[in-house]
């Protein structure tokens, strides 16, 4: 099965290329770049110099001919404009951007401040949080791969919300991301001297992942959920650590939370539950598709703290996109994703 990567010169795109290169069932049909078409991939990414691919231009017919599955690893606004052309040609589209996650053009416009994708495709898209929407992903033609912060956060909170172990509002998400989460594009805020030896929050109250978090938290809890989300940038390349704080419902114990997580994730190959008293670390998941989860129910305050660690480029983007490809094609869920995390 051949796959095309649009946006192959970005961090999400080149991570997809790495995974597809090592995948037992898939191969790369074409790598597309709007800015570097005609150049060998190795000119943009010397670490991939041995791959003899030339980057191709954004030509719908050519791309549709080159693969059955089209990955968009492009900034918001690109797949919203182009995905329909591939869907109409019978292709499967897996979109790493936020263009199809929200199911509602008005909400998209409000949070992304961009022209939304066609509403009929927005409504038909399946949200690719693999552990939660497996059956839907297996049938989908358009898969909206989740955002990096929502992947970590939702994996941690959905079991607790669904089983009524925590109150729905307020739910506080305090999360930290490595700099690759912001993509490869040049910007002053990502310069070495700006990010190194520094730690700072950004987009408090206005981050575009807020409606995505609230949409799927509400869908699983059965009632509206309000989320207070504070992302931070930390001086590392990869990784997200999300701490989630919520009021436990009366009588809920640490054992209840442990049993709840075990019942949801005992057969989930990429979710690893930490033993009591141990906590997830970004280093333990780096370069892998794992999400590590830890938790604590504080008897003094009645607050549940859930902690999730993922690699933003893997479970938060390209890794989960390949997991969704596997589910969609009926291949083993872990195909091409079996590698150990990179350590140290
Ligand atoms: N980085 C991360 O951790 C995560 C990213 N995402 C999402 O995945 C998507 C890709 O992110 P990321 O790889 O980090 O971003 P990058 O900025 O690193 O790469 C995006 C790529 O898209 C291509 N591109 C830009 N504009 C256009 C255009 N108008 N038409 C076609 N292609 C275009 C560019 O390649 P070229 O100029 O060669 O075409 C660029 O390399 C984004 O939507 C992002 O929000 C989601 C989860 C996590
Ligand atoms: C560190 C950092 O800047 N991260 C990015 C994540 C971007 C992203 O994944 O955006 P979409 O999922 O909406 O496409 C951010 O916070 O905006």
Summarize it.
With 344 residues, the chain is of the alpha/beta class.
Q: Can you walk through the features of this model?
A:
It is found in: Cytoplasm. Pathway: Amino-acid biosynthesis; L-arginine biosynthesis; N(2)-acetyl-L-ornithine from L-glutamate: step 3/4. Residues 2-140 form the Semialdehyde dehydrogenase NAD-binding domain. There is one protein chain. The protein is of the alpha/beta class. The chain has twelve helices and 13 strands. The protein has helices at 11-21, 41-44, 60-66, 78-87, 105-112, 119-124, 134-139, 148-162, 192-195, 210-221, 254-265, 314-329, and strands at 2-6, 27-32, 69-72, 92-95, 126-127, 142-144, 171-177, 200-201, 227-233, 240-247, 271-273, 291-297, 303-310. A seven-stranded mixed beta sheet has the order 8-9-7-10-13-12-11. A hairpin with a 5-residue loop joins strand 12 (291-297) and strand 13. Helix 1 packs across helix 12 and helix 8 packs parallel to helix 10 (210-221). The longest helix is centred in the C-terminal third of the chain and has 16 residues, at 314-329. It is globular and about 60 Å long. The protein starts with a strand and ends in a 15-residue tail after the last helix. 47% of the residues are buried. The model has no long low-confidence stretch (mean pLDDT 97). The protein binds NADPH dihydro-nicotinamide-adenine-dinucleotide phosphate (NDP) and N-acetyl-L-glutamyl 5-phosphate. Residues 76, 97-98, 147-148, 177, 181-182, 208, 231, 233 line the site of N-acetyl-L-glutamyl 5-phosphate.
């Amino acid at each position: 099965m051949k796959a095309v990567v649009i946006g192959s010169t970005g961090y999400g795109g080149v991570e997809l290329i790495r995974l597809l290169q090592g995948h037992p069932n898939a191969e790369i049909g074409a790598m597309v770049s709007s800015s570097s078409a005609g150049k060998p991939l190795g000119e943009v990414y010397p670490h991939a110099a041995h791959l003899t691919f030339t980057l191709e231009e954004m030509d719908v017919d050519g791309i549709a001919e080159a693969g059955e599955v089209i990955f968009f690893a492009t900034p918001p606004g690109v797949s919203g404009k182009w995905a329909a052309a591939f869907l109409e040609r019978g292709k499967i589209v897996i979109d790493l951007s936020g263009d199809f996650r929200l199911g509602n053009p008005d909400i998209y416009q409000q949070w992304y401040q961009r022209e939304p994708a066609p509403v009929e495709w927005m409504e038909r898209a399946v949200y690719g949080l693999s552990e939660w929407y497996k059956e839907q992903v297996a049938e989908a033609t358009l898969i909206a791969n989740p955002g990096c912060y929502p992947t970590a956060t939702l994996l941690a909170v959905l079991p607790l919300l669904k089983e009524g172990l925590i109150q729905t509002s307020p739910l506080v998400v305090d999360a930290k991301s490595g700099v690759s989460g912001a993509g490869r594009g040049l910007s002053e805020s990502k310069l070495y001297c700006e990010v190194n030896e520094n730690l700072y929050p950004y987009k408090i109250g206005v981050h575009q992942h807020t409606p995505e978090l609230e949409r799927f938290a509400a869908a699983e809890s059965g009632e509206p959920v309000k989320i207070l989300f504070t992302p931070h940038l930390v001086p590392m390349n990869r990784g997200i650590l999300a701490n989630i704080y919520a009021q436990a419902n009366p009588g809920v114990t640490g054992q209840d939370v442990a049993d709840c997580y075990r019942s949801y994730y005992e057969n989930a190959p990429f979710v690893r539950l930490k033993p009591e008293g141990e906590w997830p670390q970004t280093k333990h998941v780096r370069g892998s598709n794992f999400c590590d989860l830890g938790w604590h129910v504080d008897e003094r305050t009645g607050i549940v703290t859930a902690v999730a660690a993922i690699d933003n480029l893997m479970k938060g983007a390209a890794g989960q996109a390949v997991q969704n490809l596997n589910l969609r094609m009926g291949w083993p869920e872990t195909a091409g994703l079996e590698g150990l995390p990179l350590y140290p």
